[in-house]
Design brief:
heterotrimer, A: 488 residues, mainly alpha, 2 domains, two-stranded antiparallel ribbon, 20 helices, 2 strands, C: 599 residues, two-stranded antiparallel sheet, 4 strands
Chain lengths: 488, 114, 599
């Protein structure tokens, strides 16, 4: 039995051993990296299977919570854990053949730190620990964005850094506020004593958390760094930022709002409208975007807005739909950014007109990109359709007709620019077939396979989504797992 | 609690000053200093939460009522370490940006927009 | 079995996609085989429907299908047209992706006609819209995008309606809505928008001319003849089944809709006169015909609904026949521009005959399939006693004569262009649909009663009386129409005229030059007077034609784009601006919660 804590410890340890491996053999680095991520994936599968029979509590330092830091993996954590490590594993395969700027071992070091940090964020049961992992994830992400050390990379990196560190400082302030009144940092413990909080503190803490974590969760108006950093970063880095990192930030926000602070109507309404505004603004900004990567970055922001909007509705169905949408966003954005990375190797620049006819030149990649995009905009029998339709059904259940209309409007805008892109990819005829190496296509193929599989059997995901959503709704259950009830 | 107000006030003020610097200065180094100040302010805030008038260091043989709260201190130690890492990375960025752009003026960094 | 009617297209699409990679002709042939199965399965299912329900999605959603008589009527039309269009595609050597997307769009269309619940209807409607756009998104991105966006606006409106219905009734099954409260008009408007757009009735028609003109020539007959029927299907379903209670009690709604239909028929007819692209001309003609359909549905009497369904069938037959002729002509000439053609009658006689019958039907002349439907519509409007409406619809039929004449004249008559001297008749597969479509064109014109048998059963399902008829004879309150008698009379007249011509004719064959320039050789001067054929109409209506509803939609689209252009400046690229947003948001939140935050 693999303890989930190893999925944090081992990448952290190996990350700092990377220079050593590099000195040993420069080629070994990427294989070590792959091995570590593969181990993480294995640990995630094992944990996921264990979580099916009940949540796991991991106690550190041999002291029971709430007096020591604990990890708690419930259905939600298990699902995200599996998703993160699975996607990271695919990226690791993709990176085997990628061109990375020297020194390569530092890149992989940062990547490992990033994965470890994101994993830590979703597994930990301690608020300050969450802050530490947030910072680890953040710092490694700033480094990864700036890793190319060209103008765009540096610019994106420094923008991300400044906003990110302000955000995490605010988050720390929120933690301090809570601690000052409750006297504990354990999330379940705080949740159990939330009645001790005076209302102003509760609201002030919520504001700090929303703004602080909103930076990572890509909520407007804290998301301005996103397009710049995404455009500047290395392709695979963009992929992991958009899929894993944003979801980790979102998880933190949702966990804090739903479990720790108790989901007040005021908080949820704010999430709902913030999500909706994020969605609309991002889709409108993407509409006339010339650079495809930046366009997808905006679309990524928009999707995050949609997910937050769904969380803001707060009903059990809405939470399931939100989680489903988040899963789909990970799958689709993984496909889009990776296939775009493959295309970028063939052409100079990712401007739309540079990519004319790329779908004829790279037929498989073009097809995969198209499927990813179509899933995102909800073509039936791709997984994105089911999440969108269940999201809309839950919107209708709550009679939110105006938001419903706005979401549909955003979907039309999104459909327009994605279809335009796909259209340009297939314009022109005289292109030679020059498909890329299979090993680079493999991760994208796997993601597309999952999209198609879920498109025809969306039901397989339903019980897990339901469990995860229940974990968020049922606060006392969560408290009970940590305090007392569960044997470590 | 009341005696802590002055600590709370000054630490929040320090953080606000830091933020103000980050907002108004154009020089990247100064912005980094501003961010650092902001962090220091929050760290001070954490420390002052645990502060107890007349309390001493929390060592085992001292009665618990006389000691200050040890947890915030531990937190601040961690936060300082993290802050150092962020600052170091930020300064690295500053060096690289100066190499590429020939300036530290943050408003010149507008290659990517809209 | 219903399952395989739909699945055959999807399966066939994939198989054809794979097989068309090595050989396009094999791909098209295999696609044809797969498309014939649904036809075979549908034909015997005339009596009664059957119900099939299989759960694909345990995520509290499921798909269900049911074969209703109305669905069967349209599905059979669609299946026939699709199989025919593949003959043409075979001649055009369409590539694998075209086969895939056109097969998928046909499968989507089948799903629309067979859906038993709103969600299934929506899903297949989406599939149909997307994949029909994919057939030409590669060559004509702009018009494909235009088409898909209009479709999406419609289908998302429909989605909103189905969500409202699901919220208030707790069910997605397609059943009549009763006791729905005051929001019925709003829900119904949202509901029918999708079908309104798809049937290209004004004012939601602007996508149609460019989409019909730019779609692959072998696909357009199906596109215009069958895909638009999904719109008619939805409108019929909405007016006479789902919202029947509302529709029957609010005559004003039907009356307005009838006017919309009549004006569509009239104005689209006028626009058709002014087109130079044969496919655009036919596209407007198609819109005009669907205007008749909408007109009849709006009138809402047994006779007018029967008329509408008959026109829908007739439109499917003759409009796709005309488009097939254009496809056949294009294979040989490489153009669809009227001014670039001329005098092809001797080179492509079979196409000419087909086109001739096509335009006779389009103009609504007996004994073709185009007449009985229109006759019923005229009788219905006269019975109802709406003189203005009758005037509009009669005027519309005049435009049909005019554009039909122009079509046949400029392609087949007049002097032959030099570059087309060695043109041959179109390849046989491209002629198959022409010849096959002539059969229903004449048969249903002579024996309209066989169609009315079906429509009567449909009407009775909706609680309307049928139209009294025998196989050849239709009766209305005002008179009767006997297709067979008219046909025999006209046939006899034709034979007599032909005999007279053969016996007493003293004509002599001369060269074309003698005909047009009295023997003078005029090189480089076009004797073909089609270019400005209806210039005078354009001149007279100049001010009016400038008023285009398309401009309004474009303005909205531009507005959204411009809004995005302005709003994306929020992402100013300046990090300090980003920080300011963050601070402002903090400030906003503190202001928002100022009541709570007071210590």
């Amino acid at each position: 039995m693999v303890s989930p804590i190893l999925a944090i410890v081992i990448p952290l340890a190996i990350a700092f051993l990377m220079p050593f491996f590099s000195a040993l053999s420069r080629k070994s680095v990427k294989w070590v990296f792959l091995a570590v991520i593969a181990f993480n994936f294995y640990a995630a599968i094992m944990t996921f299977l264990r979580v099916l029979s009940g949540p796991i509590l991991v106690v550190t330092a041999g002291i029971k919570p709430p007096f020591a830091i604990n990890l708690l993996i419930g259905p939600l954590g298990g699902l995200l854990f599996l998703l993160f490590e699975g996607v990271a594993f695919l990226y690791a395969i993709f990176l085997l053949k990628a061109e990375i700027k020297e020194p390569v071992h530092r890149f992989f070091m940062l990547f490992l730190l990033n994965v470890a940090g994101a994993t830590g964020m979703i597994l930990t049961g301690d608020l300050f620990n969450l802050f530490v992992f947030l910072e680890i994830t953040g710092i490694s992400a700033y480094g990864l964005v700036g890793f190319k050390r060209d103008k765009k990379g540096l610019e994106g990196g420094v923008k991300y850094l400044i906003l990110g560190s302000v955000g995490s400082t605010l988050f720390l302030l929120g933690v301090a506020l809570l601690y000052s009144q409750v006297g504990t940092l354990n999330m379940a413990d705080i949740a159990g004593r939330i009645w001790m909080l005076k209302k102003p503190t509760l609201y002030a803490a919520f504001i700090m958390f929303l703004v602080g974590l909103g930076v990572e969760a890509e909520l407007f108006p804290m998301n301005a760094w996103v397009p710049d950093a995404y455009e500047g970063a290395h392709d695979t880095v963009t992929a992991i930022l958009s899929t894993v990192l944003s979801k980790a930030g979102l998880y933190a926000l949702i966990r804090v709002v739903f479990t720790v602070l108790s989901p007040q109507k005021a908080f949820l309404d704010l999430l709902l409208w913030a999500g909706l505004i994020t969605l609309l603004l991002a889709e409108l900004s993407a509409l006339r975007q010339k650079n495809v990567k930046r366009m997808i970055a905006y679309s990524s922001v928009g999707q995050m807005g949609l997910v937050v909007f769904a969380f803001g509705m707060g009903s059990l169905f809405a939470l399931q739909a939100a989680l489903f949408q988040a899963v789909n966003h990970v799958l689709s954005k993984g496909v889009l950014f990776l296939s775009l990375a493959i295309m970028g190797k063939k052409r100079e620049g990712l401007e739309l007109e540079n990519l004319r006819g790329i779908g004829r030149e790279l037929p498989v990649t073009g097809l995969l990109f198209s499927i990813g995009a179509l899933s995102l905009l909800g073509l039936p029998f791709l997984s994105g359709f089911w999440s969108k339709i269940s999201l809309l059904l839950s919107t209708a259940d709550l009679k939110l007709w105006v938001p419903l209309g706005l979401v549909l409007l955003a979907s039309i805008i999104e459909a327009f620019y994605y279809l335009r892109t796909i259209g340009v990819f297939y314009t022109g005829t005289d292109f030679r077939f020059r498909e890329t190496a299979f090993i680079r296509l493999l991760p994208v193929l796997v993601l597309v396979f999952v999209i198609l599989y879920l498109g025809f059997r969306p039901g397989v995901l339903a019980p897990y989504l339901k469990g995860a959503a229940k974990e968020l709704v049922d606060r006392s259950g969560y408290i009970g797992w940590v305090i007392g009830g569960l044997k470590p | 609690m009341a005696e802590n107000i002055i600590f709370y006030g000054s630490s929040i003020a320090l953080a606000a000053i830091g933020l103000l610097i980050a907002l108004t200065r154009r020089n990247l180094i100064k912005i980094i200093i501003g961010l650092d100040l902001m962090e220091t302010g929050v760290n001070m805030f954490l420390i002052s939460i645990g502060y107890r008038r007349g309390g001493t260091a929390p060592i085992f043989d001292i009665p618990l009522s006389k000691a200050v709260d040890p947890v915030p201190q531990a937190l601040v130690l961690t936060a300082i370490v993290i802050g150092v890492a962020v600052t170091a990375l930020a300064l690295t960025f500053a060096v690289r940006i100066h190499e590429k752009y020939g300036t530290l003026d943050i408003s010149k960094l507008r290659e990517m927009k809209w | 079995m219903t399952f395989w009617v739909i699945a055959s297209y999807f399966l066939g699409g994939i198989v054809a996609y794979v097989l068309a990679r090595p050989s396009r002709k094999i791909g098209a042939f295999v696609a044809l085989l797969f498309s014939i199965y649904p036809l075979y399965a549908l034909i015997p299912a005339l009596d009664g429907g059957f119900y099939l329900r299989f759960t694909v999605i345990p995520y509290y959603l499921h798909l269900s299908f049911r074969l209703t008589l109305l669905g069967w009527f349209f599905a059979l039309i669609a299946a026939t047209l699709y199989s025919l269009s593949l003959f043409s595609a075979y001649s055009e050597k369409r590539d694998s992706f075209f086969l895939l997307s056109s097969m998928f769009s046909a499968g989507g269309l089948m799903g629309v006609f067979l859906a038993a619940d709103y969600l299934t209807l929506f899903i297949f409607f989406e599939i149909m819209a997307f994949f029909s756009a994919f057939t030409f998104i590669r060559e004509h991105r702009r018009s494909a995008l235009k088409y898909i966006i209009y479709s999406l606006v419609g289908s998302y409106a429909f989605l909103a309606a189905l969500l409202v219905i699901n919220r208030s009734t707790g069910s997605l099954e397609i059943t009549p809505l009763s006791g729905f409260g005051g929001s019925v008009p709003a829900v119904m408007s949202l509901f029918i928008l999708a079908f309104w757009v798809k049937s290209a009735v004004m004012p939601f028609h602007p996508w149609a001319p460019s989409a019909y003109a730019d779609s692959p020539h072998s696909y357009t007959p199906f596109f215009s003849g069958a895909l638009s029927k999904s719109g008619v299907y939805g409108l019929v379903l909405a007016f006479f089944y789902i919202f029947a209670g509302f529709f029957k009690s609010h005559h004003a709604f039907g009356y307005i809709f009838a006017w919309i239909g009549a004006l569509t028929a009239l104005f689209a007819g006028i626009y058709a006169l002014l087109q130079d692209d044969a496919k655009k001309l036919l596209a407007y003609s198609s819109i005009s015909q669907l205007g008749y359909v909408a007109f009849g549905l709006g009138l809402g009497t047994s006779l007018s609904i029967t008329g509408s369904l008959f026109v829908a069938l007739g439109h499917a037959v003759f409009e796709s026949l005309l488009f097939f002729v254009i496809a056949a002509v294009y294979i040989r000439t490489g153009t669809t521009m009227l001014t670039e053609m001329g005098g092809l009658i001797k080179k492509m006689p079979i196409s000419f005959i087909a086109l001739l019958f096509g335009i006779i039907a389009a103009a609504g002349i007996p004994p073709t399939v185009g007449f009985p439907g229109k006759w019923m519509l005229y009788e219905a409007v006269l019975e109802k006693g709406y003189p203005l409406l009758a005037g509009a619809i009669f005027a519309a039929s005049i435009t049909a004569f005019l554009y039909c004449y122009r079509l046949i004249y400029s392609i087949f008559l007049g002097p032959l262009k030099k570059e087309f001297r060695d043109v041959r008749e179109a390849p046989f597969p491209a002629l198959v649909p022409l010849l096959l479509l002539l059969i229903p064109l004449l048969f249903f014109g002579l024996f309209p009663g066989y169609v009315v048998d079906v429509t009567d059963s449909i009407l009775r399902e909706f609680g309307y009386l049928g139209v009294p008829h025998t196989p050849a004879k239709l009766l209305s309150g005002l008179g009767t129409f006997n297709g067979l008698a008219v046909g025999i009379t006209m046939g006899a007249a034709f034979v007599i005229a032909f005999l007279v011509h053969a016996v007493f004719s003293r004509s002599r064959k001369v060269s074309e030059l003698n005909n047009y320039t009295a023997g003078e050789v005029a090189e480089g001067v076009s004797m073909h007077y089609v270019a400005d054929f209806y210039k005078f109409i354009e001149r007279e209506l100049h001010g009016f034609l400038k008023l285009r509803v398309e401009a309004l939609f474009n303005w909205i689209a531009e507005g959204i784009g411009g809004l995005g252009e302005v709003l994306r400046r929020v992402y100013a690229g300046d990090i300090q601006a980003y920080l300011v947003y963050l601070i402002l948001f903090l400030g906003f939140l503190f202001t928002l919660y100022r009541g709570v935050l007071r210590w």
